[in-house]
Every structure is written in C-alpha cells, then in structure tokens.
C-alpha cells in the first residue's frame, strides 16, 4: 500500500517495548437470578506489538466478555478483578473518561455486527472523520479529516472511495460495512485492535476479503490484534498464537502450528476432530463432543471439561488443572492432568481425536452401492423459475422491476442420495427450497417430486406427497413452536395425516430414541433445550412420517462446531439406516463435502457447476467454484499459509438487475485475463451448462481445471 | 393499552431459554400433551387456584343466594328505610327499603355474566378476526380491517344509546353482544400485526409444509403464541365491560330499574358513601373481589401457557437437577446459562 506511509507516520511516537496488552488473572462475574455467573475465571495472556492472538472457544466460553473487559465496555453490574495492563498502564480502576481517551485511539474494536457500530444517520465518511477529530482534536482540520477518511476507505478496499464516503451505512453491503468499521478502527493508528467474530456474519467470499483487509490493517499500523472466533479455520492462517477457552478459562495456549499439530488438551483435540475438512476427500469420521458446556453459576470442582471428556479419570474431579508447560516448552501450555499421555500417544491431531473420542465413519446404505442410473428419481427440477415483482408506491402499486431469484435451474436427486446446494447468501438457495416445498406449479419449468409433476397435483395428492417430503430448518429455535411441548411438536405431522392416537403415542418415544434424546424429554418445552438438541427435535419431527426426501436448509449453521459434528453424524446415520435422500443447503462447503454425494454451486439464481462432490472439489471447472473453494479457510496452519487465495472482488450483484451474458462476469478473475473478443463472448452469450467429465457440468465458456485446495 | 409480552409471545428467536432445567417431572414412559401440561401447571399456582375458587363461589352465591333470602330485589320493606346491616337485612336496606342483599346478589348475577361474557366474546372475536386477517391477507384482510376501522370511528356510546331503546325488554344477552361489539377492534389490530410476524416464523412454515390446514395453524400455532396478550386483554376487558355497563346504565341505557347491576348499585350508593357506607361498600367490595379474582386466574393461565415462565415450576427444580445429573452424557439436560448464546453464535447465514 503506497498510501500507508502517508497515513500512518508512527515515527513521532517512540516504539513501545514489551507487550501491548498484558492481562493477568482476570475474572469477570455477573449477578443473575440463579447465582453469580462467573463468565471469566482467572485469565492471563499477553499480546506483543504486531502479534496476532486468536481466541477460540464455544459460545458462552467468555471470549467476548474478556475482550469487553479490556475495552471497559462491560455493564456496570459486572464485577471485574485482576489486572489489565495496556502498554504498562493499568486499565482496571480507570474511570470512563480516562478509558475513552485510550479506547478508539490506542485500542479499537471491530464487532461481529458492523451495523451496530455505525450510526445510521451519518454518512460513512463523516463517521470516520469524526473518529479522527475526536481523538486528534485541534491537531487536524475538518477538511484533512474528511480527506483522510477517504484514504482510509480506499485502504480497506472500498471501490470508488470518494463517492462511497458520502453514502449512508444502510447503502453498504455487509462486507463493505465491516470494511468501513475496520477503516474506523485503524483511523487513529491504534496499538491494539480487538476483533470479535469480525467475519461470522459474512459470506465466505466476503470473509476472505475482510480477513485480507485486517491483515493489511495490521501491516500498516503494526498493531497487535486479538481476533476472537469460533472458526478454527479463520485463525489457522491469520493468528500467530492461539488461546483456547473453555468455561471462562484458557485451557490451552501456544503457537498456532504447535496447537494444530500437537493439541495437548482433550477439548482442543475434540474441536479439531469435530470440523469436517474441505481438503480431505475420503470420508473421515467426525468427532462429536457430547454434552453441553457447564453452567457458569455453580461449577463443580475439578476440570470443567470432565463431564464431556473421554479421558476423564477420578483425579480430574478433585482439583481444576492449571495451565502447565507441555512438551517441555514454555510456549505451549495446557490445562489437563493427562497431557503427558496425549504426548506419548503415537497418533496426532485429528487422528488422535478420532481414536480418543471413538468416532466412526458411518456405514453407507445398501442403496448407495446401486449405480446411480438404476435408482429412482425422487426429485427433479428442470428449468425452474421464480421471479418476484419489485413494486413501488403504497396505494397504486407499480411494477418497476423483477428480482430473478431463481432463473432456470435443473437438477435431480436419486434415491439414497444427498445433493448439497452451495452459494453465497442471496443466490436463491432458500427460494429454490421454498418452491419445492410449496408444491405448486412453478412460474417456469417443471418440478416433480417422487415422480409426480407439481402442476398436476390437487389438494389431496399434494397432501399425500407432503408425507414423503419433509423439511428441517436452519434456526432450531424458530422452527419449533415455543408454546408446544416436544410431544406435540413431534406428533403434529402425524396428527395432520390422521394417524391414530395410539400409534402416535408409541411413535414419539421411538423417534426421540432415534435422534438420541431421552423419552422423558417429551413433556418439556423447546426453550429448555440447547441448540443441538432442538435441531434433533426438528429432525425427529421431519422423520415422523417415514419420509423419502428430506429438505435441509442450513441445518447445522446455527450450531457450535462441537455440537455440529453430532448432528452431522446423526444425519448420516439416519440416511444410511432409513434410506433417505437429502437436499442439503449449506454455505459451509466443508460440511457439504463431508455429507453430500453430489454438489450444485449456485450463483445469482443459476447453477454454475454441478457434479460428483469429489470431482467438483478436487477439479473445479467454473471460476466461481474455484473462488468459493479458495475462500474457505482450512484448519491447518501450514497448508493455510501456503494457499493462494483467489479473491473475488466486490459483492453479489443485485438479482433485480443481473449482468448480461455470464452472470459472474463482473467478479470473474478469469474474465479479466481474457482477450477482448473472448471477453465479448462472456458479455454477450450466456454460457450453457456443459459436460465436463463423468457427472460433472459447468457453465463457463472457458472452463478449465484449477486446483485450489 | 399497554401490552406486556413475554418471550414466548414476542416470539423472538432470542432463544431466551431463560433456561433453568425444568418441569413437571414426568412419569417415565408417559408423555404429557399440551392440554394436560397446562392444566398441571395451572393447578400448581396457588393464587390462580384461589382466584378460580373465588369466582366459582361468587357464581354460586349470586345464583343460590337469592333463593335463601326471603326478600326479592324488587320488593320493598316499608318497615326498614336506610337501615345498616342487621339480622333481618344482613346487608342493610336502601332509602326505599329494598333489601341490599337481594339487590347485591341480583347485581352480581348481572355483572358476573356481563363482565365475563363480554370479555370472552370480544377477546375471542378479536383473536379470530385479527389472526384471520393477518394470516390470509388479500381481500379478506382488507374487508376485515375496513370493518375494524369503521367501528373504530363510530362513536360507540352513542350507537349503544340509540340502539338500546329498541332492545328494551329484550334479552340482556343482546346487550352483552352490543358491548362486546365495541370492544374488540384495537385488540384485533394488534393481533393482526402479531400474526404477520408469527406467520413468517419457521415453525408456522413447518406446519404449513406438513400439510396442516390454515384453520388449524391459526388455532394451534398462532393464537397460542399470543396467549399472554389475549389473556391480559381479556382480564382488562372484564373490568372495562363492568364499567361500560355501569356508565350506560347511569345514563339510562343498559340495565334499567328496577333491575340492577353492581354498576348501578355502586353508582347510586356512591352519593351516600360516607353517610350510609354499606350502600356503597358492599357492592363495590364484591366488584373489587371479582376483578381481583379474574386477574389472579388470568395471571395463572398466562404462566401456565407460557413455557418460559418459572412460576409453575419452582418447586420442581431440585428434583429435576438430580435427574439431570445421571443423564447419559449425550443427552444431558439443557445447559443453564449458555443456551441464549448458542443461537446467536451462528448468525452467519
Ligand atoms: N451482561 C451480562 N449479564 C449476565 N451474564 C452475561 C452478560 N454478558 C455475558 N454474560 C454471560 O457470560 C458468559 C460468557 O459470555 P461471552 O459473551 O463471553 O461468550 P462468548 O464466548 O463470546 O460466546 P459467543 O461465541 O456466543 O460469542 C455467558 O454465560 C453469558 O451468558
Ligand atoms: S483434566 Fe481430566 S477431564 Fe480435564 S481435560 Fe484432562 S483428562 Fe479430561
Ligand atoms: S463465462 Fe466468462 S465471465 Fe463467465 S465464468 Fe466463464 S470466463 Fe468468467
Ligand atoms: Mg461472543
């Protein structure tokens, strides 16, 4: 970046020596009805200048609370003890006025939700300029601040920054907002940036862009970065050191490479084993960590992980293990009494996890051995179209345009097969599902479910088909009626299809067994279950009528990784046991690679590539698939650092006004390198889906294999 | 009207899982459905049960009491004017010698019936119209909302006043319907709004894709999820129906002498509240007890229907905790502190 020097002239400040941030024995607790919630219990860590520290852990492990404590942003009822030293200066006990001098200038924060960090009524440029003016006061003129704001926006990769600085936050897409927030965070050349799940709300392609921007920001400011995430992939390539948190404590710390290669605490091991790998072709067993994180109000003595730990022995329950050096290095520390045994075992990493947690590869169903062509087609879409009108005006609605949500897609699913559908948000995945579930005659093309054309259905035959076609939703909380006990939730589809009471009363406990819940749970309400359990309930309900085809809309994306593995395993088992077919929509390509037999990649309402999962992942033909795959971080620091990222520029174009010819051309890296008349082909001719190999099609005029994993 | 919603209602995906491990320790192998669960939760609430008993007793008193008294509400005892309570007239008499006990009982009959019926009818109608309009939208919605708006702009008091003479002598039930007819519109609008948001929730979609009919979806998923709103609305309506009836009666519509209601009794007794206190205090006391009892029952019902409320379950906590400890790890009881964050952790659609 050439503008970097001009922006960040840190020469006038003496380079600080020693760590930027030193947290020692930090404890945070909140009062609650059922006792004090001890959200953080004795946390110590340091961040050196220019160092990136990753903090990972499950939801509720105290990641955010500990960072909010550093920023002094906790609510007043929080009780904070310990010490937080920023460049040698103690922060605990400072009053708000003194803290805010440091906050925003020397330490800045990037939140998960960029919208909440921007004020809706001021332009983005003004807000960044404001951040400069507040902290530099008279030292900088208004004009200079405005100019610098534009430079900052340019630095974080916002195209046409001069114009864009005048836009309001709501006119920005999610990724651009996050970039604007990062611009604001680095405006005052901070010494420490804390980023709390900065990419969780974003699409993978945009996530890759934002991480890239954070890296740039770190390079130009030389700041230390604390990045909080639950995604072990994100930190693998980005962080230097890692801290794994569990129940408010650090349970393992060390160099990233060390921890990924040689985890010494069963929890870390389990986490690493629970993520499906994008880069592994053959089926790998996923390690589910059973149970839930403990309640932070009344922790039993001993290791907090003990109830979920496969290596737990009696000694674990007596005293909570402290962080101790492992493998004879002070760099790598773990809080477990059996680290030595882990070190002594001859397997490492994910393999060791599989061994210790006892995960198994799910057996394939017998139907999977039958050649694909000989199996029955359960779902067939050909040229399906769904357009939404865009209207203007309240009283007299005028049609001003059309959103091409789904624009002619075709695929089929055979018996016992899983088709994964992937793509950025807004590409039409959910619309496709809803069209299938509605079972109405589509706007264009045909839809046939279990051999019956949706256009020919009447109310009665439609209801009959609904028996065999069931759905599992993304948000397990929203998908269950909060007012219905679980028994009624699971019984509902059977009541709808008029099964007799006795049958239902027998079937519900059976289903609970099937999805790994206890029969007594039937009389509880949904709110009393954890996310993973709720998703199991959703699956039990979907299975109540012995369906043939299950439509799953991001069924695991709302779950923590350790829980996610359990649900994926369950889905695989059920598929094998009951011979189900799945239509599996997900944005997480690793999950799709793990569970799907075939995959369809969607872009702006079209399928750009479809085929056998290993074919598509190992030899992607379409530039978009290649970009998508390369954007997914792999939880392996060594591999991750060597990978070359294909960054797609910009955001998804509006589906109300898709580009002519090839829809991907505005963001296509290949297109940019083509000769002029080839480019014209992309602009003028819509690429048809062409055979690329056995069961592998892609829609690009210049398709070529490019390995990205 | 201020509407207090709890998590169950506003139906946030907050996953508010206030989440103490809970509930009605079920006998193993036997599952409880919603109806039974709500009943046990209601019965566990002492105050609500007490309220229910009081209401039942009041009904009994109102309808059996007069049979035991030798005076009727339209009879005068010319030997006793304005007497304070004494054995012959246990609630005393008024200035023309009518027995206050007989009058109060008669008034209680009227007010109990009018109050409860109006509340149930108007809230029920509001729920129906609002939910149907919000669920189906289109011309159904336009038609129903047009009706709501029309009724809202019409001066209800005037209409009732004009219509009453026509109904004079006819059944008091007509009067009830009339009162109810002017009380449901605002609630219906609120219900419609809530239906619009509920309809987009995935559990409603799930029911739809199961093949559940619209009528059943409204009855089973939409209305129960507004239960708190509706119950609060109904309890408020009981009070306001009794008051509206009083107001109308005062101006000479509604319940007419010699017939009485608690409202008319209070109105006429209020002048002498300080001098001949029993004329005012006795009917007013009955009204207060009645409205309070209705509120207790309403509260209890709301807690019983609301899975996130902790009232119905407190005593169960300990037993349940013991049960959860021996749970096999894979199916452990719900976490107590973190469930609210589990859902938020993954807003990465
Ligand atoms: N203001 C508060 N009052 C009471 N309890 C709180 C408050 N903020 C957080 N907690 C509790 O502190 C614990 C740790 O929360 P924290 O937000 O740090 O989790 P996290 O690791 O960031 O999780 P996530 O991955 O979901 O962001 C949780 O049990 C949470 O419920
Ligand atoms: S201390 Fe014991 S329970 Fe805790 S992680 Fe180590 S082996 Fe498992
Ligand atoms: S057709 Fe052209 S623009 Fe489209 S993906 Fe292929 S190369 Fe890119
Ligand atoms: Mg957090």
UniProtKB/TrEMBL annotation, chain A:
A GO molecular-function descriptor: ATP binding
Membrane spanning stretches: none
Q: Which residues form the ABC transporter domain?
A: 21-272, 379-629
The record's annotation in InterPro entries points to: AAA+_ATPase, ABC_transp_ATP-bind, ABC_transporter-like_ATP-bd, ABC_transporter-like_CS, Oligopep_ABC_C, P-loop_NTPase
**In this record, what's one Pfam family?**
ABC_tran
Q: Which UniProt keywords apply?
A: ATP-binding, Nucleotide-binding, Transport
PROSITE patterns in the record: ABC_TRANSPORTER_1, ABC_TRANSPORTER_2
Q: Coiled-coil ranges per the record?
A: none
Report the SMART domains cross-referenced here.
AAA
What is one GO biological process annotated to this record? Answer: transmembrane transport
Please give the family membership noted in the entry: Belongs to the ABC transporter superfamily.
Name listed for the protein in its UniProt record? Peptide/nickel transport system ATP-binding protein
Q: Which organism is it from?
A: Umezawaea tangerina
UniProtKB/TrEMBL annotation, chain B:
The residue stretches assigned to a coiled coil in this entry are: none
A GO cellular component annotated for this chain's UniProt record is: plasma membrane
Domain of life (superkingdom): Bacteria
Q: Does the keyword Protein transport apply?
A: yes
Single Gene Ontology BP annotation:
protein transport
Q: Which InterPro entries match?
A: BP-dependent_transpt_permease, MetI-like, MetI-like_sf, OppC_N
Tell where it localizes: Cell inner membrane; Cell membrane
Compositional bias segments (type: Basic and acidic residues):
317-326
Q: Low complexity compositional bias: what residue ranges? A: 8-20
Entry keyword set: Cell inner membrane, Cell membrane, Membrane, Peptide transport, Protein transport, Transmembrane, Transmembrane helix, Transport
Region feature Disordered, mapped onto this chain: 1-30, 305-349
* Membrane topology, record value: Multi-pass membrane protein
ABC transmembrane type-1 domain sequence ranges = 112-298
Q: Where are the transmembrane segments?
A: 47-68, 112-137, 144-166, 172-191, 273-297
The UniProt entry, under SUPFAM superfamilies, shows: MetI-like
Q: Which family does it belong to?
A: Belongs to the binding-protein-dependent transport system permease family. OppBC subfamily.
Task: Specify the protein name.
Answer: Oligopeptide transport system permease protein OppC
Query: What organism is recorded for this protein?
Result: Umezawaea tangerina
